[in-house]
Write the structure tokens for this entry.
Amino acid sequence: MDRENAIIQTFIAQRQFAEAYVVCILGTNEMEVDLPTALTNDPFGIVQDSAAADQSIPVMLSGITKVVAQGAFARGDQLGIAALTGRVDTVVGLDASFSPGTATAQKSIGIALEAATNAGDIVTMLIRPFYYPWG
């Protein structure tokens, strides 16, 4: 995978990240990332490795990355947080009536470049947060 144009920054893991290639959110403290606590969290990036709590962890903020699927989805689907593990799945309710400011809205972090058929599949995704194809 070409990382030439990727933006990767090192942060501190607030909690343990058992899997690489999962979504993270901003942590409590400066330069800290955490696992999602709700499906409606604002996704921040994709961790590129596993890490114990309080260890350094590389986070891809822009580019093409691997991600771990929660379940099946198609190539081209908008992906968001699917589980509190940070795995991804198709964003629900992403249509012209979608309002990202709504507290119950699941937000997109990117576009699937490959289809996933099973939970645990590792596929590629273009990080493209908050992209809405209708406008």
Remarks:
- The chain has a mean pLDDT of 89.
